[in-house]
Structures are given as structure tokens and as C-alpha cells.
Amino acid sequence: MATTQTPHDYEALSVETLPGRLVGVADLSTRVGADPASWSVKEVGDGNLNLVFIVTGPQGRVVVKQALPYVRLVGDSWPLPLKRAFFEYHALTRQAARDPGMVPDIYHFDEAQALIVMEYLSPHIILRGKLIKGERVDGLGQALGLFCARTAFRGSDLAMSAGDKKADTALFSGNVELCDITEQLVFTDSYYDAERNHHTPELQPVVDALRADPAVKAAAQYMLMRFSSGGETLMHGDLHTGSVMCTDTDTKVIDPEFAFYGPLGFDLGMLIANYLMAYFSQPAHRSDEELDAYQDWLLQVVHETCKTFHAEFVRLWAGERTGILYPPALWEDQGQSSDGARDTLLQHIWNDAMGFCGVELHRRTLTLAHNADFETIEDTGARAKLEARSLDMGRTILLARPSSTEDLIALARTTNSKDLL
Ligand code: SR1
Ligand code: MG
Fold this sequence. Notes:
Helices cover 49% and strands 12% of the residues. By secondary structure, it is α+β, with helices and mostly antiparallel strands. It has a five-stranded antiparallel sheet with strand order 1-2-3-7-6, with helices on both faces. The protein has a three-stranded antiparallel sheet with strand order 8-10-11. Strands 4-5 form a two-stranded antiparallel sheet. A hairpin with a 6-residue loop joins strand 1 (40-43) and strand 2. It starts with 17 loop residues before the first helix and ends in a 5-residue tail after the last helix. The structure holds 5-S-methyl-5-thio-alpha-D-ribofuranose and magnesium ion. Residues 47, 238, 243, 255 line the site of magnesium ion.
């Protein structure tokens, strides 16, 4: 992994130092109260990388997110540049413009301190936690399908001017180290015994079979090539269920520090994989009476997300094709329909999304950063049986992409009844 230099005036905040250090930030104090002695500060970061504070005062509450100069999950043996806060800030501003209301409002950005003061989302909680608890979110698939379609379409050469797109591609091309994490962890480490890997011991026979398959490795590396060379749109870059916060009726997207110009189908594919891991893990979290209905609901969310993505992309295609790609001058202005061209492109996006879904299903079980859906299952024998289904589904779709949402859902149901260990 790359090494990095921390600017001299950067200093990580703590619960104790935050009020004194941020008292002069008007965008913060006008929201929580002018007297820092009246603030209470809690550090709540449970992600892999950053510090996250909730600051509460007599007038309100904000979130302060600060990058650390290393990977929090691992420690200072793995340095990571602070500039990821810069990319997160710029990604949030673009996402807010492309899908208004779907990301937290930004109140203040301090580049030297790698710090963003933003809206405290309440009573939202992290979606992954809700899915483990068996809670439902009305409109989840619709909100995230719209988010994926709008950010993908409006951040691409389908909609942007060529100059703006190239300038923005250049800006985000500096997010090298965060891409490096994805390139190693998501696309590569699953397929050999990389140093930081770990997995549930009982899973060993399934892991051995996966790593012995050259076709799986080739398919995963092809997806890496699509990721690293397919600068089609500004991706969120890390759209899993830990990057989504919800109430029972409202959905927001957070944490786009991995933002980069990549394939139109990347975010959609990663998101679907995370829904599917929630689905496969449910037998360990639900009672027999609740299980079928809740798993059905999760598959409905997959369906709703994919159908909404498709419908919104079609709508934007009809009304917002203002970029250099597929210009109306070639079709509509000639009295021709562009539906065929659009549908072919949508099929490419779907095939990519399915490939990204496959590698994500593998990496959350096999590499450094696992997810709580499986990790909270204490009985490792039971956990391994469920993780094996996730690995099996990933392998199947890497080797042969489901051609439609319906095929994907049917495959999930079949895989969910397999006894693989
Ligand atoms: C070392 S960072 C590990 C993972 O956490 C982030 O949320 C990304 O998903 C990354 O791959
Ligand atoms: Mg994150």
C-alpha cells in the first residue's frame, strides 16, 4: 500500500479537544450553540477508516467527521492520506446536486484538518444494523435505485459537458490510495491467501475450491480492469449497507470517500451484493416464523432497486442526454428511435453490475473487511454454511451473468436452499 505524508498542522481531534478547537467555526457554533462549555461530544465512528463525532449543544446537533492518517481498522502500520476527506467533500456536493436530498447537508469543510461538519441525520441508523434486526424501510429500493441511476447518468458523458467531465475526472484521479484498497481488497485478495485475509475456519473447503478455479480469477480480474479503466461516471465507490442510513421511511447515502470515475454499474452491483449478504445471513438472525417473509422482503428490495434504476435511466435518457455520448442528433433529430442503443447500453451496465456483485460477495467473507451480517453470527459452523452460499452465488454470477433481475432473484432463492458444507 502507498505511504503518505501528513501535513504539519493536522491534528486528530478527540472528545476533549474538539470544543476548544472548533469553537471558532461559525457554521458549527451557530447550529449547536455559541458556548463550547455547553457542548457534549461523543465519538461514534464504527467504520474502518475515520473518526466520527456527534456534537450536541443547546441549539442542535451536528456530525464532525475527520480522516485519520492511517486505516483505523488496522492502525498506523497502514498509512492512508488525509486527502480522502477532500474527495468525500467534493463527491457529496456533486451527489447533492444530482440527487437532491439524498446525502447529508455539508456545513463546513477544513481541508488541512481533513474534517467535514455535516448534518446529523436523526433518527436514522445504519441500514446494515436495521437489516440484521429484521426491520423494514419503506421506499428503500426506490430511493437507492434512483440514487444509483441519477448519480451514474448525471455524472457521465451522457449528461455532462466534455470539459466538465474531463476536469472532474482529473480532480478525482488523485484518489489513488482509496482505489488501491478497492483494487486489492475487492478484486484481488479473495483469490489467494493475501496477508490481511481471514475467514471462518469451517469454510476452508469452499475457499480452497474457489481459489483453485482459474476461470473465477480471470473473471474477477476482468472486473478489476473495468473498474480501473472504465472512467464512465463519478461512482460513490463504496455503496454498501453501511454507507446508507435510514429511518423506517427515509433513506440517505453517506461516506463517499472512495469516489472515483469508474463504471456506470459499479455502485448498483456493490449495493445488490450487500442486500444479498443480508439475505443469506438471515437464517441466523430470524426466528422460523419470521424468516421467509423477511427474506422475501429483501428480495423485493433487490427487485425494486433494479427496476427503479432501469426506469430512471430510461427517463433521464429521454430528457437529459446533453453530453457527447449518444446525442439526440444521431437518432431523435433524424426521426429515429434510440431505444435499441439505450437498451444495449443498459444490458452492458447490468452485466458489469453483476460482475461487481460477484466479487463483493466474495471479498466480504474472505479478505480484510468483513461485514456484520455474517460476523455477528457467533456459531462459526452455522456462519460458514451461510457464507458458503454467498461465495457460491458470487462464483456462479462471475462465471455466467444472470440476464435479468428475475434471473438474479431466482438464483438467490436456489442458492439459499443449497447445503454446501
Ligand atoms: C481498509 S478499508 C476496508 C473497507 O472499508 C471501507 O468501507 C471499504 O469498503 C473498504 O474496502
Ligand atoms: Mg465508509
